[in-house]
Amino acid sequence: MKRSVIVILAIAMTALFATAAAAQNFPKIRELRMDRAIPPQGVACIECHKQETPGIFSDWAMSRHASAGITCIDCHQAQPGDKDISIDHEKYYSKADMPMGEKQYFVPVASPVTPKDCSRCHPDEAKQYSKSKHANTIEVMWKIDPWLNQGMNSENERKTGCYYCHGTVLKMKEGKLDPATWPNVGVGRVNLDGSLGSCTSCHTRHRFSVMEARKPETCGQCHLGPDHPQIEIFNESKHGDIYQAFKHEYNFNSAPGAWTPGVDYRAPTCASCHMSGSGKQPTTHDVTERLSWELQAPLTIRPQDFKPFPSGTEWKVERNKMKDICKQCHGTAWVEDHYTQMDTAVEEYNNNYFKPAKKMLDELYAKGLLDKSKFFDEPLEVEYYELWHHEGRRARMGSAMMAPDYAWWHGFYECKNRYNKFMEEARHLLETNTKSYKYPDFPNTGGDTTKPEEIFGKQ
Questions:
Q1: Within the chain, which residue ranges are assigned CATH 1.20.850.10?
Q2: Where is this region: Disordered (predicted)?
């Protein structure tokens, strides 16, 4: 009898240990629960905005947020003491003529929704975005841009131009958002909660559509024009041509991370290559990934060597990521040969255009024939700037994204013309020992040259 008991206990203990060992192979079960019930305060928001701003209500009603029960207060609700609380909005809770305008529905709200707010539901995306050049573009801009650093434009020219895409430093004034800094959804906006950027730069409110962010027209809001014509380059390329011909067949509403080349789309958009998951590559909101050259810099360098904002990555690793994306549609020889051509274009720009022009500019400054106290007030400074900032960028970006007209006619052809004019005038100043002509009335200058304290600290 005792022997039987011992045997039974041994079998039980063996089974117990086997079960415990097997349990170690199972990860902890995560229970993700979403309460789709809308609280009375959320209903109050909806009923009020349905009447006062029907466009906002309709946009939200068509969103995935609405179908998941996510309402205004889930994104806009502020905590007591937050710097961006809307004082004016509190007045609506004591107006008898407003639907549900009663104190019992009061919730403090903030107008700007920030990546920190979005991170409550989208933590990975917010973290990736925070490391990108998009989120940090105000810092980059102030480190390299002579327009800002030398006050060669006005505050309003910056607000309506540069800051519209790059972002403002949000401030409060008399209990409201300062109109000098708002409205703004710039991709690098500095928010009052300390976060950087605005998710609605690409996922516009209040539908916050994945479909919209996948379309090149969204990127083309900012990536266009003489200095960074990515949307024009895309439209000229074979990728853009196929997109225009077949975009009506694209499945832009595929789930995040599941948007598949050859299944959901025939040729890539900007997001396909720079952000979306494909092949072995996961989706990323860090657009600095997958880049092997810093094409917007005066001298083309590797992203990790870009002093204003080093990428913190290794370019060969990032290039292989992009190659993996390319190989979802192209053969290995095509991809390798494309990068050979791109690298050659970079080398030719650096050695034949930028470096000689920079050397000449430095010589003119050293001999006092150009004045360093201001930029853009002497013709050669403008010629030099546009050589790299306009023609040089177009040549490099056109080569990188396979747009022949931008690589040549808008790019290297114009580089030659700009370079020759620059060198002709520079040699004339050197040979005659003559100081450059200065524009006596450079218009509408006087922008503040103080770097934003929120980013750079007190100067």
A1: 288-451
A2: 440-459
